[in-house]
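Chain A, query sequence.
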Amino acid sequence: MTTADNSTRDVLRHAGPRSPDVPWSTLAAISAGGVIGALARFGLATAFPHPAGSFAWTTFWINVSGCLLIGVLMVLVTEAGQAHHLVRPFLGVGILGGFTTFSTYIVEIQHALRAGEPRTALAYLAGTLVSALFAVYAGVLLTRLITGRHRKDRS
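Chain A, predicted structure.
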């Protein structure tokens, strides 16, 4: 065994725990959902563009509505009943992960700053963050209310 083989083995050993193997069916569900979510986001962004430097309302509402649906989904798949093992990867990671677009959110903040609109950038930065977090919380609370799952019912 060469020194290079030993050093490679040492690097791999110290790189952290080995990732578990993900079943192909899970990867396929995430990929298919991601395509659907990304196409929906692209369609909305194309249908409702915004001028450079202005508040990016389309991306804002995409992220807020996606976060609301993530809150709904998590209650439905974890508390309200048994779901197929691919529902959460397909809907949560795939569709809603592809639909919400926090990377575009950051780029739009940069565009607003470059356009000389720091107030718009700050309002968009804070407004999206607060609204998205509130939307997840609202989705969880509303779904628990609708499904009859109250805090005292969960164990």
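Residues 118-147 form the longest helix (30 residues). The CA atoms of residues 75 and 115 lie 41 Å apart.
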